Amino acid sequence: MGRIEESVEIDAPIEVVYRAWTERESLPACMRGGADRGAAATEVVALDRIAWTGGADGQSGVVTFHRTGEAGELGTRVMLQLDTEPHGLWDHLVEGLGFTDRHVIDELAAFKAYVEENRPGLAA
To answer: For labelling alongside 57, which of 2, 10, 81, 89 has CA 20 to 30 A away?
Structure first.
């Protein structure tokens, strides 16, 4: 089993970031795949954490949301812990070479850009 731990700081209020994470359209692709394959939430604490397990790919994990900055500054740190279960030689090779980690980093960066550019859930 492999474990990936990554975080990203997003220049948006925690409410906006959490809402974006829970919307299927803006969810990072590495998370959407698990949901499409039968992963199920095991714990949901609004504005704090979401944990999931299962699915055909054996993926499980937890994402936590943390307010950052001083009073009056709006920011959120998203911390992701993803456990993967590689199957077969190809999956082990991909994970061993760090491609899975890189994919998660890229997806978190894309999520950050989406939230900061669109501010989903906020009136314009």
So the answer is: 10
The residues, any chain, with a CB within 8 Å of residue 33's CB and separated by 6 or more, are 57, 59
pTM above 0.85, yes or no: no
- Phi and psi angles of residue 111, each rounded to the nearest 5 degrees, phi first: -65, -45
For the chain, domains (ranges, CATH) are: 2-118 (3.30.530.20)
Hey, what are 43's tokens? 């714990």
CA 98 to chain centre: 18
Question: Per-residue pLDDT for 94 more than 90?
Answer: no
Question: Residue 101 half-sphere exposure, CB side, CA atoms within 13 Å?
Answer: 11
Q: Which of 108, 82, 105 has the alpha carbon at shortest distance from 5?
A: 82
pLDDT of residue 102: 77
Distances (CA, A) of 41 to 44, 48, 54, 100, 105: 7, 14, 9, 22, 22
Q: Are 55 and 61 in contact (CB under 8 A)?
A: no
Mean per-residue pLDDT over the chain, rounded:
77
Q: Which residues on adjacent β-strands are paired with residue 10?
A: 76
User: DSSP label at 61?
Assistant: E
